[in-house]
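Dear colleague,

Thank you for sharing your sequence with our group. We've completed the structure prediction you requested, and as agreed, I am returning the results in plain text so they can be pasted directly into your records. Please verify that the sequence below matches your submission; if there's any discrepancy, let me know and we will rerun it promptly.
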Amino acid sequence: QVQLVESGGGSVQDGGSLRLSCAASGDTSGRSCMGWFRQSPGKAREGVASIASDGSTNYADSVKGRFTISRDNAKNTLYLEMNSLKPEDTAMYYCAARGGPRFLCRPTSTFNTWGQGTQVTVSP
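Please find the predicted structure tokens below.
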């Protein structure tokens, strides 16, 4: 069983930056792909970014060039560096993990292990 715990959320102004972290514990061997998702009230959950065990990444068009996903496999920690934040980035951000082949490691894929989320609020 894998446990995921997010941290680093908070409130910033338009144009600000935040760095989210996700600490993974337990048996992570079958969860080589990790990703960040977000959901705001009244909207569907959106895949933000994903990263495979070899470091290959994919991003949603809405965050390309502003967000960077990375991972430290030695520390079992996932990161999301968010720059040039906009009010529309306001959401609960979730860390997630899945196994399977690398070509399925995309923010549009189905993930089966989830953290509890951390809130990000961007004010105008």
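Summary note from our side: Residues 42 and 119 are 15 Å apart (CA to CA).

Kind regards,
the structure core
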